[in-house]
Amino acid sequence: MSRVKVALIQMRSGTDPERNLDDAEAMIREAAGQGAKFVLTPETTNLVQKDTQRLFETLKSPVEDPAPIRFARLAEALKIDLLAGSFALLGADGRAVNRSHLFGPDGEVKALYDKIHMFDVEIGGGESWKESANYKPGDRAAIADAAGMKVGLSICYDLRFPYLYRRLAQAGALALTVPSAFTRPTGRAHWEVLLRARAIETGSWVLAPAQGGRHEDGRKTWGHSMVVGPWGEVVGALSGDDPGILYAEIDAEEALEARRRIPALSHDREITGPGKPA
């Protein structure tokens, strides 16, 4: 079996993109120095800003923002696969986009993925979110090679939609990435069980780097970055919300073996009724 060392970067990004990128680069370089060949950062690595006016005053277009170029050069310099879990960028229609970038060891972009499912929720306790008010959702799944296997991309709230991960796995993904900024209430209740469920359902590795702690804009995120194996076992996890690096080794053969043992991905059935609600 050929095992690959991965590193999940846990951050507490703030409102200053340059400082966030400096923090991310320092940890990425540390992880590569420890032998990681695939390094992943969390959702909105470059900016956590919940104030709409300040968000749009800070956002830059994909061609103007320095983050993609900086990460591309970093991946090439370190000769690693590098997933920018997501960058908050200004889209062509004036709305923001929440976009993952997967860079290869040559610095080229292997895949782009815009978060499909918008976090429009009323959590309770006075906490509510309306992501669709500012962000344009994506409409295309993405899969690419990294760490010696096919990897399917997703972001945060996507985690609650099993059909996306099933399609990625059926398309050949043996690892699923879930860069996130989970809220504390939902993280405490659902983070681990959802990650393990997606791994079990698909027989896949699940790699989930997270934002954690109290951010400059007042937002509080759960942290607890996690790697889950294809049989649903927690291979590694950070114990809290402080910035840090989680290391693990993953192997494509373990995912293939899980699928041989329970080949559920090939057992879909056509059903009728009751249909979608009107």
UniProtKB/TrEMBL annotation:
One of its GO terms (molecular function) is hydrolase activity, acting on carbon-nitrogen (but not peptide) bonds, in linear amides. Keywords: Hydrolase. Coiled coil: none annotated. Residues 4-252 form the CN hydrolase domain. Pfam families: CN_hydrolase (PF00795). PROSITE patterns: CN_HYDROLASE, UPF0012. It comes from the Bacteria. The keyword Hydrolase applies. InterPro entries: C-N_Hydrolase, C-N_Hydrolase_sf, Nit1/2_C-N_Hydrolase, UPF0012_CS. Belongs to the carbon-nitrogen hydrolase superfamily. NIT1/NIT2 family. This is Carbon-nitrogen hydrolase family protein. The lineage of its organism: Bacteria, Pseudomonadati, Pseudomonadota, Alphaproteobacteria, Maricaulales.
